[in-house]
Amino acid sequence: MENWTLGLHPLAAETDMGGAKTARRSWKRHKAIVDAAIACVARTGYTATTVEAVAAEAGAGKQTIYRWWPSKAALFVEVYGRLADRSILQPSAAPAPPAQSLEEALAALLSRLFDLYRTSPAGAILAGLIGEAAGDEEVRAAVQAGLVLGRGDIVRELVASHPDVKSRAIRPDIVNEVVIALVWKALILAPESLTDAGARAIAGTALSAAMPHA
Questions:
Q1: Is residue 1 part of a domain?
Q2: 11/154 Cα distance (integer angstroms)
Q3: How far apart are CA 46 and CA 124, in angstroms?
Q4: For the domain that residue 203 is a member of, what is the CATH number?
Q5: Does residue 63 share a domain with residue 153?
Q6: Are both 195 and 125 inside the same structural domain?
Q7: In the structure, what pLDDT confidence band is assigned to residue 6 with cuts at 50, 70 and 90?
Q8: Is residue 16 predicted with pLDDT exceeding 80?
């Protein structure tokens, strides 16, 4: 299994073997490729972006890209992870209002995510990966390892740490699954719904689904 699926940095081996100077050069090339991938999607969209186009944009050889990422999907899973970094999705340093409900906290998280989709290629990349995953086992494995397993903990952690969870017997795992399903559905079928109002609607639906019903 490739290092990126295990959450390890693709340059870790080079750092150990080649010394600090080689690692710095490798990191610059690596960053140039990631930046080039973002620029290509912003300009032409995910589907039209090829590994060859990214290599040309970065001034790198195609084999350099394949040395670090086994496929276009693997590259863009990492690119999406860079754009949707936890530090961006986490709330600002200012403390949340003490009376903020779980639904409000979850809606705020989703609003930050949707803002990212509107202001960067992150949404286009995720939509492209989801579309390809439907018919390609390799892409599906990349999305499963790098996005579903690697990113879902943000929602679970938020829900599990909120005081409303115990009093309302809410299951964080169900909230997470419903949120992923609804966000991905909206991203593919109704991207115009990725608004603050849409965030509140998804948060309410997910929490309702995760509560016991008489």
A1: no
A2: 25
A3: 6
A4: 1.10.357.10
A5: no
A6: yes
A7: very low
A8: no
Count of CB atoms situated within 10 Å of the CB of 123: 22
Q: How many Cβ atoms sit within 10 Å of the Cβ of residue 65?
A: 24
pLDDT at 173 over 80: yes
**23-74 residue pLDDT tens:** 566 888 999 999 999 999 999 999 999 999 999 999 999 999 999 999 999 9
Q: Is residue 167 part of a domain?
A: yes
Compute the mean pLDDT over every residue in the chain, rounded to the nearest whole number. Answer: 83
The number of folded domains in the chain is 2
Name which of 114, 107, 90, 109 is nearest 187 in CA terms: 114
C-alpha 39/C-alpha 1 separation (Å) is 29
- State which residues form the domain around 26: 17-68
For the chain, what's the residue count? Answer: 214
Question: Would you say residue 2 lies in a domain?
Answer: no
Output the six-digit token pair for 60.
């790198």
What tokens appear for 63 in the block? 């084999």
| CB-based contact 76:121 (threshold 8 Å) | no
**Structural tokens at position 198:** 């849409």
Distance of CA 114 to the CA centre of its chain: 12
